[in-house]
Design goal:
Helix content: 25-40%
Distance between the termini: 43 Å
Mean pLDDT: 93
Low-confidence stretches: none
Number of helices: 4
Strand content: 15-25%
Oligomer: single chain
Number of domains: 1
Structural class: alpha/beta
Largest sheet: 5 strands, parallel
CATH superfamily: HUPs
Shape: globular
CATH architecture: 3-Layer(aba) Sandwich
Radius of gyration: 15 Å
Number of strands: 5
């Protein structure tokens, strides 16, 4: 199975790691996972975001530590859909935060006569305070990358 996911990944946190692991699990032994990382030009309104290369290196380090480097392709994406609309994919892994984008992708794929992607929604990973782990909460120094409260 060919699975895709995308995002800013700054900083890479436990929720992102869960999405990536799920995508690799879905792809199976002979599948492929495409991870699209937004280019720096797309992140200017989000605040203090690491460079594209730093974000890519963080994902590569995580994949290496987890021994998940095979069958994963990491590429820049230049718009919110990347290659998901016209690419050869079977499924997309998303969170509640990004499921609406996946539905839009399927509408566009349908217009092109392509089969819709199977949408796999992963529940939010919660921090110690039972609120979702998010990059903005980490950048605001409320929690760390694993959801531990910063006091």
């Amino acid at each position: 199975m060919k699975v895709c996911l995308g995002g800013t990944f700054s900083p890479l946190h436990k929720g992102h790691k869960t999405l990536i692991k799920k995508a690799i699990e879905l792809a199976g032994k002979n599948g492929l996972v495409f991870i699209g990382i937004t280019v720096s030009e797309m992140t200017k309104t989000k605040g203090d975001i690491k460079s594209f290369s730093e974000r890519k290196q963080a994902i590569e380090k995580f994949l290496s530590e987890e021994k998940l480097t095979k069958r994963v392709k990491i590429e820049p994406i230049y718009d919110r859909f990347g290659p998901s609309i016209d690419g050869d994919f079977d499924a997309i892994v998303v969170s509640k935060e990004t499921i609406s984008a996946a539905r839009e992708i399927n509408k566009e794929r349908k217009k092109l006569g392509k089969k819709p992607l199977k949408i796999i929604e992963i529940p939010f990973i919660l921090a110690e305070d039972d609120k979702p782990i998010s990059s903005s909460r980490i950048r605001n120094k409320e929690i760390d990358e694993n959801g531990k409260l910063i006091r």
